[in-house]
DNA sequence: AAAAAACCTACTTTTTCAATAGGATATCTT
DNA sequence: AAGATATCCTATTGAAAAAGTAGGTTTTTT
């Protein structure tokens, strides 16, 4: 299950896209608009910055800004930056040591298929896809 | 991420399918073959029994047996029985209360799409698909 | 009666999640 | 230079879940 870190990250980027201007957007404002803790966002944004998904400027008048156009962000790369791991099972996680039962495992192909399915979906959607308001 | 409960459940059912006979298969044997704790399996099997995925017989000569043919089990229903929830985000979980931001939420459709994608995959594969040994 | 199985429930240990907290540092404005 | 306003950095906490361990009870066959 995707954690609040990833979900908040998504919402922050949507917020940044919707409030783009020439200047930078302070997280203080985003926190209010999104109804989440500023302090928590301050932990999440460095993860996005590290992957060059945003630029952050310190000091008065500072804040964050997108580094590219919304349609150039895949949801996959955003979640990748914030979630610990997107693999559906332990043994497919980043840097997992090879399972001793690997050669006899009947499920690994199935799990790989699931991972591929999920990854494909996540990489097929972009931030731009989330910008239209639509409710049911 | 799918927990060991779900993964072990899958392996138990594969094991049962591979060791089918007229009699019942005791978990003691499955535990040895699969290299997992018997005591832990004893917690998992009741979940499968509850959904009529297996029948269990107590007493000497007892054990468990599949209730239908391997091709009639979808992986989805197996994981459904053992995992707490298969939803990718909290607000799509079983019996989640409706989010106060629901009407303005820009991500819900995306998450629903992810859930549908995952469910489709899980329901398209059957236990029979996992029975062929294949390694790479 | 004894053996072998499932059944039931409580406990423990470890890890992760979701924040909260408090200050340090950088930058702009006046 | 001073003050305001940001990000940045790191530690701590509280609650929940994950993954098992443990011990006994009941059922059934031999």
Descriptive key words:
homodimer; 136 residues; mainly alpha; Arc Repressor Mutant, subunit A; two-stranded antiparallel ribbon; DNA-binding
What this model shows, in words?
Two copies of one chain form a homodimer. Chain A has 136 residues and is mainly alpha-helical. The first copy, chain A, has a single domain (4-130), classed as Winged helix-like DNA-binding domain superfamily/Winged helix DNA-binding domain (Arc Repressor Mutant, subunit A, Orthogonal Bundle), CATH 1.10.10. The first copy, chain A, is 45% helix and 6% strand. Chain A has helices at 4-18, 27-34, 38-50, 75-82, 108-124; strands spanning 54-57, 63-66. Chain A has a two-stranded antiparallel sheet. In chain A, helix 1 (4-18) packs across helix 4. Chain A is elongated. In chain A, 22% of the residues are buried. The mean pLDDT of chain A is 94. Chains A and B meet through helix 1 and helix 5 of A and helix 1 and helix 5 of B. Chain A binds a DNA duplex (30 and 30 nucleotides) through residues 3-5, 24, 26-28, 37, 39-40, 42-43, 45-46, 56-64, 84.
Quote the CATH topology of chain A.
Arc Repressor Mutant, subunit A
Tell me, rounded to a whole number, the average pLDDT of chain A.
Answer: 94
Helix/strand/pairing category of chain A? mainly alpha
Query: Biggest interface in this structure?
Result: A-B, 36 and 37 residues
What is the count of β-strands of chain A? 2
Q: Kindly provide the radius of gyration of chain A, computed on alpha-carbon positions and rounded to a whole number of angstroms.
A: 18 Å
The major β-sheet of chain A equals: 2 strands, antiparallel
